[in-house]
């Protein structure tokens, strides 16, 4: 039970931390927040790499893992790029400074 | 020896993600947040590649390349109006990745006990979120009907499918060797995801997308339990709680509970109490509208999904510029569920170069309506419907709304008198102080802007 004990602690702390952090994000930025968290959830790529890269991996595992790495990479790349693209648009003063 | 560095890299990666979300709380620091998020992901990937279990790199590198080849064009060429669809598609990818990894882990080791429970959760959430997100994508991209599709006993069917899937899951936990259960389990989860979204209509999408965001994160979190990887648990939990909170905010903003949104098939109540005779409304032309706007001192614009559909945000910005130059105070009132996803209106208006300090949230702007001379409603309907406050039997009763009816004059740009998503009539349109501006939002606004500039030139 020991290794899962620590895992549960981490889960509990991370959950509360996430709650506190997100609470403070202005509704103005909810859409870029979503695309940012999409990119972060692509952390699944870590699991995918571990599965695909193993020595004893079977073909089935390789194929599943390969697909998972590809899908996660799509998310990471497009997630961060789109978030940045959106954020670039948020300006405080309009272009006319008459 | 190199590999003992990876736990440290993981910790740094998790810290980076935490900072990324923290810095997202203000437009000033937000881009820094993206940057540190990228660093975090880089650390995580490098750390993982260094681990001794990872020996075969070719497939991984090809997958990176393929993923980037698909991801980069999507990010560069996607129009901003497609943000809701792309978000749904992204959830689909993320959830499918988690589900596939769960499947791979299962076939590799047929684990027992707690690991199996986590694996079942990971795969269940992963597959159902995958199909649900693809359905959401279809509805948002308007490839699928946006009306909710319901039939009698639907909730029982959905519950039944879910229970079967859960039963298979339990069976797998009890005896993981029953390999035949796994494909059955997966298919049931996939079907459930589809069934879940079928009864949900377009305007409830903001809540659903937020919820799917949460599920995709939670399945990555469950993966962390399966692989005993604290980075996965942390990042997954952050993503999970983010989506969940956004979903709760959306529900509060519509004054409906989760179960109501998911299982309540909102929007099918078409002719409950609406009277069918056409009541008279006052309408106006672009010229008249321009005159009224010109004479105002304070104008509030209420954008809605109709603005997105008509692509009118640029014309609204032009209007904002023209009026501001004449010393008129112009602000935009943003209701939390306007549009098809949280923050939808903000992104569209920002894209049109509207300075973000002009975009004001509902709680902040509601007290200002009584001293507002003109409210211009563009493609928004239910969010300004007084029935939410006054009519207890209304489908939208209790929903917090923008108190547009309290302003001096109300002008509504709408294509026709047909009811909005909730299928009910809007008292706002029949008030003495309200003028309907019939037409397509973009063309009408172009007309108003033209009238304002020529009138101004003649003064």
Short characterization:
By secondary structure, chain A is mainly alpha-helical. Chain A has a domain at 27-88.
Description:
The complex is a heterodimer of chains A (98) and B (459). Chain A is mostly helical and 98 residues long. Chain A has helices spanning 2-23, 30-41, 44-53, 59-88. In chain A, 59% of the residues are buried. With 459 residues, chain B is an alpha/beta fold. Chain B is 59% helix and 7% strand. Chain B is built from 17 helices and six strands. Chain B has a six-stranded parallel β-sheet with strand order 3-2-1-4-5-6. The longest helix of chain B is centred in the N-terminal third of the chain and has 28 residues, at 113-140. At the A-B interface, helix 1, helix 2, helix 3 and helix 4 of A face helix 1, helix 2, helix 3, helix 4 and helix 8 of B.
List keywords for this structure.
heterodimer, A: 98 residues, mainly alpha, 4 helices, 76% helix, flat, B: 459 residues, alpha/beta, six-stranded parallel sheet, 6 strands
């Amino acid at each position: 039970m020991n290794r899962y004990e620590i895992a549960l602690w981490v889960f509990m702390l991370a959950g509360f931390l996430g709650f506190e952090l997100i609470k403070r994000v202005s509704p103005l930025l909810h859409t870029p927040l979503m695309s940012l968290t999409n990119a972060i959830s692509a952390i699944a790529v870590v699991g995918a790499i571990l599965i695909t890269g193993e020595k004893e991996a079977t073909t089935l595992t390789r194929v599943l893992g390969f697909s998972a790495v590809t899908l996660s990479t799509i998310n990471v790349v497009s997630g961060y790029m789109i978030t940045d693209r959106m954020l670039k648009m948020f300006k405080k003063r309009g272009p006319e400074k008459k | 020896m190199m590999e003992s560095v990876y736990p440290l890299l993981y910790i740094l990666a998790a810290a980076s993600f935490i900072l990324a979300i923290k810095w997202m709380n203000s437009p000033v620091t937000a881009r820094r947040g993206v940057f540190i998020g990228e660093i975090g992901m880089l650390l995580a990937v490098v750390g993982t590649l260094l681990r001794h279990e990872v020996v075969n790199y070719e497939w991984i590198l090809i997958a990176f390349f393929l993923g980037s080849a698909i991801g980069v064009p999507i990010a560069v060429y996607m129009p901003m109006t497609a943000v809701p669809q792309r978000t749904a598609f992204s959830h689909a990818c993320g959830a499918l990745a988690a589900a596939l990894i769960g499947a791979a882990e299962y076939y590799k080791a047929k684990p027992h006990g707690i690991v199996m429970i986590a694996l079942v959760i990971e795969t269940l959430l992963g597959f159902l979120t995958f199909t649900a997100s693809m359905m959401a994508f279809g509805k948002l991209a308007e490839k699928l009907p946006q009306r909710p599709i319901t039939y009698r006993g639907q909730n029982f069917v959905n519950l039944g499918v879910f229970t079967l899937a859960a039963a298979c899951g339990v069976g797998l936990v009890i005896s993981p060797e029953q390999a035949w259960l796994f494909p059955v389990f997966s298919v049931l989860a996939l079907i459930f995801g589809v069934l879940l979204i079928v009864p949900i209509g377009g305007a409830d999408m903001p809540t659903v997308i937020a919820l799917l965001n949460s599920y995709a994160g939670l399945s990555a979190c469950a993966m962390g339990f399966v692989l005993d990887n604290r980075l996965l648990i942390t990042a997954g939990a952050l993503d999970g709680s983010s989506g969940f909170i956004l979903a709760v905010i959306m529900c509060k903003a519509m004054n409906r509970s989760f179960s109501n949104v998911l299982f309540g098939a909102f929007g099918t109540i078409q002719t409950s109490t609406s009277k069918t005779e056409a009541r008279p409304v006052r309408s106006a032309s672009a010229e008249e509208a321009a005159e009224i706007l010109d004479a105002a001192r304070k104008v509030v614009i209420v954008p809605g999904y109709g603005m997105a559909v008509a692509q009118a945000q640029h014309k609204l910005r032009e209007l904002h510029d023209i009026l501001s130059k004449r010393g008129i105070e112009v602000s935009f009132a943003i209701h939390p569920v306007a549009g098809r996803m949280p923050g939808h209106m903000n992104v569209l208006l920002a894209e049109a170069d509207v300075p973000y300090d002009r975009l004001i949230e509902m709680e902040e702007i509601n007290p200002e309506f009584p001293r507002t001379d003109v409210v211009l409603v563009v493609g928004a309907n239910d969010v300004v419907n007084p029935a939410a406050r006054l009519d207890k039997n209304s489908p939208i009763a209790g929903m917090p709304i923008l108190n547009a009816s309290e302003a001096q004059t109300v002008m509504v740009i709408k294509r026709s008198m047909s009811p909005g998503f909730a299928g009910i009539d809007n008292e706002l349109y029949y008030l003495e102080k309200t003028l309907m501006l019939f037409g397509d939002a973009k063309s009408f606004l172009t007309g108003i802007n033209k009238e304002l500039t020529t009138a101004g030139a003649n003064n």
